[in-house]
Each structure stands twice: as structure tokens, then as C-alpha cells.
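dumping this here so i dont lose it
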């Protein structure tokens, strides 16, 4: 019998390999991806095992490139009862794409995921939370492609992304798309990131858990957490030529992540975004 906090908590997983991340986009060429060691399938299968052990459901934002290489992985995600959603095709930040390029990238991913799974894909997450004031046309593209929601914004200040002035809770856009931002804890007029990812790896576990519990006590909205399968893989290949800051962000505490994740999974009942919001 599970004894967990039953407040609404959504678990989201960005399914990409270690070489897809924005931190390495200037040192890893897309043309070289096929020659690199692929670890996303084994890492995502381990994530599926952990979720099954803790009776957790999640939304998997799968990269189209990954789906094309590993269609059976996509089918396992769906057969385990999880929500399948799109993370675009090539993990390209939308701030670097034209409208036409973005529509092709997002549309190709949606079509591929639907063809493999046999299920409609209604959710989207932009790589590196790259929707902001400068590319609001992306919301029009999502509406045109038939998406119902996006989880592509993080209302914090960050050197790669961030919309600190945007709403901290889910809201409908003028186009009818529900935007579900990443969770933040507001203190002294500043939004602090508490939604997982690198912050969860880098910060002490007690601080992350306390921040999440504080959010659940103070806010009358669901809590959103995210991570990547590569974050539980301390043996992944290293890019020694990467900038020091990128290496610190990407490689720090990989060996501790799985145990920290297990602790988090044991404390709350985790659901998909679709289950909570639709």
C-alpha cells in the first residue's frame, strides 16, 4: 500500500541522448550523431523500470530523432501507460529557427510519433524552454499542427532561457493552447527554479525536497518536475572540449541522480500532464 503525498504532481521526461543537449550544440555536429555511442534506449528503459516500481505515470517528451532510431522504445512508453508527447525532431532551440523551419521540425516529430504509437500527440515541449516574447508565432504553429498544450516556458532568469515575467501557472493562450510552465518558488519577488533538471542534480536533496514541499503547501496549482534519461547515466561518454560551465552543468552529480530520483518518486503520486490538465 503506497503512502504518498496525493497533491497533484506531474512528472515529465525529455527523451534525448547525452549529445543532443543545447550545452554541446556548438561542439557536436548533427552529422556526427549516428557515429556516437547511443545510450538513450537503455537509459529510458531504466527510467521506465523505476516508474513501474513506484507506480508513477509520466509525460515523455520524445525527440523525433530518437523515435526514428528506436520506434520500439516509443511503443514501450505507451504500453506502460505513459503519455507520449513531442520534444521536436532535432532538439533545435526555437529562437534559432524561422517559422517555416520550426513548423517542419515540430510537425515531422508529431507525425512520426503518431505513426509509431497509433495515438494522437497533443503535447509539446520546446528544446531548452525556447519559447519567449520574441517568437510567440510558435504558439500559432502549435495550433495549426493540432496541439492542445505546450510545456515550454520557465519563468526564471537563465542564460539560455527564461520568461520571468510570464505566469507561474498554466494559462490559455489567445490561440487556445494551454501553456504549462515549469514550477517555481517565489520569494522576495523573485522566481526560484524548483522543477528538476540540473537544479535537482546540483542542489542538496534536502533542499530540493523542502522546496517542493513548500510549493505544495503554498500554491494551489500542480507541481511540475522534469529530467532527462541521460541524467541517471554516470558512465556516458565525456566531451572534454566542452566549455567548463557546460561540463559542470551536464556532468555534476550524475552518479547520485538515480538515488535522488528514487527518493522523490517515493514521496509523491506522480501523474502525466494530460491526466492532470485534461
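and the seq i came up w/
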Amino acid at each position: 500500500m503506497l503512502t504518498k503525498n496525493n497533491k497533484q504532481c506531474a512528472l515529465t521526461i525529455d527523451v534525448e541522448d547525452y549529445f543532443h543537449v543545447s550545452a554541446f550544440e556548438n561542439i557536436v555536429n548533427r552529422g556526427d550523431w549516428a557515429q556516437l555511442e547511443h545510450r538513450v534506449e537503455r537509459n529510458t528503459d531504466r527510467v521506465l523500470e523505476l516508474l513501474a516500481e513506484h507506480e508513477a505515470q509520466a509525460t515523455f517528451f520524445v525527440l523525433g530523432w530518437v523515435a526514428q532510431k528506436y520506434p520500439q522504445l516509443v511503443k514501450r512508453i505507451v504500453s506502460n501507460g505513459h503519455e507520449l508527447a513531442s520534444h521536436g525532431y532535432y532538439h533545435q532551440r526555437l529562437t534559432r529557427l524561422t517559422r517555416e523551419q520550426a513548423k517542419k521540425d515540430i510537425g515531422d516529430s508529431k507525425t512520426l510519433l503518431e505513426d509509431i504509437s497509433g495515438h494522437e500527440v497533443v503535447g509539446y515541449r520546446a528544446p531548452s524552454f525556447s519559447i519567449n516574447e520574441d517568437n510567440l508565432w510558435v504558439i500559432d504553429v502549435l495550433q495549426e499542427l493540432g496541439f492542445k498544450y505546450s510545456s515550454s516556458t520557465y519563468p526564471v532568469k537563465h542564460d539560455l532561457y527564461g520568461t520571468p515575467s510570464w505566469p507561474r501557472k498554466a494559462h490559455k493562450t489567445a490561440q487556445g493552447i494551454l501553456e504549462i510552465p515549469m514550477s517555481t518558488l517565489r520569494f522576495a519577488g523573485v522566481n526560484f527554479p524548483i522543477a528538476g533538471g540540473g537544479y535537482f542534480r546540483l542542489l542538496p536533496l534536502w533542499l530540493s525536497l523542502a522546496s517542493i514541499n513548500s510549493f505544495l503547501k503554498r500554491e494551489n496549482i500542480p507541481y511540475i518536475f522534469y529530467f532527462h534519461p541521460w541524467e541517471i547515466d554516470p558512465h556516458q561518454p565525456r566531451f572534454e572540449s566542452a566549455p567548463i560551465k557546460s561540463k559542470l552543468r551536464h556532468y555534476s552529480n550524475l552518479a547520485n541522480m538515480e538515488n535522488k530520483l528514487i527518493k522523490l518518486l517515493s514521496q509523491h503520486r506522480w501523474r502525466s500532464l494530460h491526466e492532470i490538465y485534461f
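The chain has a mean pLDDT of 94.
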